[in-house]
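hiii, so i know i said id send this last week but things got crazy w the move. better late than never?? heres the sequnce for the chain we talked about at the cafe, plus the structure i predicted for it. fair warning i was half asleep when i ran it
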Amino acid sequence: MAERSTAAVDVADNSGEEPLAAGAAKATADGVDTQNGRAADGPVLEKDGDRISAAPAAAPELHSGHKLARRYRLEECVTRVDGFSSWRAMDEKLRRAVGVHLLPADHPRARSVLAAARSSALLGDPRFVQVLDAVEENDLVYVVHEWLPDATELTALLAAGPLEAHEAYQLVSQISQAMTAAHREGLAHLRLTPSAILRTSSGQYRIRGLAVNAALRGITSETPQRADTEAIGALLYAALTQRWPYENDAYGLTGLPKGVGLIAPDQVRAGVHRSLGELAMRALANDGATASRQEPACTTPEELAKAVAAMPRIRPPEPTFTAPPEYQHTTYQQGSYGRPTPSGAPASPTVVVVPPPPLQSRTGRALKWGVAALLIAALGLGSWQLADTLLDHRSPSDTGTTQDDEPDKTGDDPKAAPVPLPVKDAAEYFPDGVAQNAEDVANSHDNDPTSYWRTKRYNDGPEMDTSFKAGVGIAYDLGSEQGVNAASIAFQFGGDHTTATLYATNSLSSATPISAMRKIATGKTSGKKLDLATETPVNTRYVVLWITAMPKSGAYEFSGSGYKQAITNVSFSRHS
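okay and structure toks below
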């Protein structure tokens, strides 16, 4: 594929960068970006409200087909700006698409990019787009990261309109929890823009460019937690209003009117969820002031995550069903098929379609008698079979009492047959902010025994250390409120032992603690299957499967030896 022109390149879903159109950047004085901090070196370029440092080194002149480390084949350049380029590439060893950032080894920020990439790779949190490799080779520095072909940029979602309240809630909840985990490890993003947020097909939000995007542009901040918190507030504000909360237009969004300052989201757009609007204002740099009350500002992602968790529950929208059009009898007319005649136009002559006359010929009479004979034969055969069935069901003593009058002692009672409850959606449940394998949640209910959702491995067990991690689990959405009686869980690993509990909860969110849920059933097994059941059904739409003990197993595929578990399939049912 030929390389695309830098001036006309489109924003790709997974590049991690936005292209800079020719002539769109301008040199400015060194200063502090209100969202992303200060550029670290030299004069800056200003684009979409971000300040990025100008680099004297030019991006390497590479073309499609060039191969790095005899493995990564460059396919399409998606960004070439500020002395570096970003590509979609193919990992020929693993046969998968990847993203690659490239810059000269003598670039003034090459060392900091390598350090940021290696630090980000050590985090290993699935809520972030993972760094796969960071290498200096042949006068080049390149960073290889995941490429998510099924994910959509938040930029594209907002181009279609503001997000509904439940989706905006999921956005701020997941992003704030993920950034809380990153800051605990000493990692900041500093460039949390709409193009850095991806929504997967399963509804999970993932963050790309942790530490790396800022290092590529030389962005630093003396208050990284505050900078990232304000950036999350800006994302929430944009999700609610489809407007950027600053005066300048950015990321395809219109900025606020000049000279009016920061105004509450519900003053920008009618119908904004009030609590979410207040939360956005608390995260933005306005001392926590809102239109309705005074609340302390959220200055760290952890404070913001706690504020989200303390909010009243936001229900997902109920599915809407469109009624089918009412059936209308059609009057067939020549040339018009029952369409009304336009006003003032001469009426078309109506031709009445006369049904054909009944069969009166000799052949017709023979056909009618043949059909009648077939019907009589069919009725006779049916009557004979019915009589034979009744005779077969009479008791041997011919007392007149048929077996149908007695209870069926050999068959199961149809009223006791379980009714399956299909899973409509699922999300990993991790109230401590540390997920296990969120991208593979769908594998736990796809009825495919070869696919699975797995936990990480732990050194202590089988009971999980509550001081470190109380448990691991998945929240399932049954689509509507159901009476849940039972669940059947198929595990990947057997051994001593697995303990699992079902809870009724109020959403797929991890914000609701286990202590606030209603227990449905619990059980323990040393095998690979666990059936949980309760006599009294519990009415709920959302069910959490919570695992608190896991067996010790050896190395398996991508996981080393340790206490761990994997779920190959979960099914729910009720008894009528």
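btw The longest strand covers residues 529-549. thought thatd interest u
miss u guys!!
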